[in-house]
Amino acid sequence: MARRSNVQNGPRTAGESEHSTYPPSPYDPDPERVPARGRSAVRRGGWSGGGGRWLVWTGRIVLWALIVVIVVNGVRAPIDRLTQSDTPAGTAATPTGSGFPEKEAEAFVSQFANAYLNFDGAKPDDRAERLKPFLPDGAADRQLGWNGFGRMSAGTFQLADIEVQDAQNAVVTVYAQSGPQRWKLSVPVYTSGGSFVVSGEPALLPAGGPAGLPQVAEPEHDETAEAELRPQLEGFFKAYALGDATQLQRYVVQGVTLEGFGNKLTLVELKSVTAPPGGTSREITAVVTWGMPTTATASPAATADPSGQSAGLEQAYRLTVEKQGDNWYIKDIRGATRSTG
């Protein structure tokens, strides 16, 4: 039997490990330090074969699970925000409602104010009868504070404010007008089972006067354009009062259709025309006086009775006009803005 030679190819220093005659494996943990081969050789390190791959796959599964959780949460967040945005802001902090029937209370108090603020000392019982449906049964004061003298007439009752105290109590305030005077009337009311009653004495409050309107500068005038516009506008407003579509087409821009008054008004006067400097398209102001129909019954004495004569009512209009050739045509008509006077 042949023996393998122990002869080294070269000298070996003391302590140098014996090299294997087999090529190194790529799975060895340290290619530079290859262990001796043989039955008596001691293994160094663990086996890096397929048995260690479960750790790799476990790590991958954990990593993918983490990615899925992050993605799901990232998608849910905007959806939750959109869902929450459908709910009106402040819903959680604001009560859903006291349950007090505000619309019905407004109507009740408007009717009460009509009975309360209209009285005549010559007919005190009439007022007491009108107030009866609004007061508690067996109320001691049938006139609710009126001494039975004088005369007052009020109307145009409109809601100003409702101060709801709970589901059954509120203070309802309405506007009222008596002659030249505007008022507020605050009325405490109680409701139960769909019915209402005045639960205390009302209070008159001032409604305030008109706001102070500052003066504005007089606008610039194009007197040439105003002179050109006047005859065209006079014809237009006469046709506008008649409501004749054929006549109106003579004064409006082609393709524009305007609805007139259907002969319910008459043009008394084109009082003024104000045109600012500009080009062939401008916004102007025209003030006219309309003859209004009267509802008074004609009588032999109608000429002496002002109510039987035709009323005149001054109105201000804002018109968009365009110049085509030598004539101006109306493109649009609407109410004027504030006056300069």
UniProtKB/TrEMBL annotation:
Q: Where is this region: Disordered?
A: 1-47
Do you know which InterPro entries this protein is assigned to? TcpC, TcpC_C
- CDD domains noted in UniProt: TcpC_C, TcpC_N
* Ranges annotated as spanning the membrane: 54-75
Q: Which Gene3D superfamilies match?
A: 3.10.450.540
Is the keyword Transmembrane assigned to this protein?
yes
Compositionally biased spans, kind Polar residues: 1-11
A Pfam family the protein falls into: TpcC
Listed A to Z, the keywords are:
Membrane, Transmembrane, Transmembrane helix
Q: Does the keyword Transmembrane helix apply?
A: yes
Q: What is this protein called?
A: Conjugal transfer protein
Q: Recite the lineage of the species.
A: Bacteria, Bacillati, Actinomycetota, Actinomycetes, Streptosporangiales
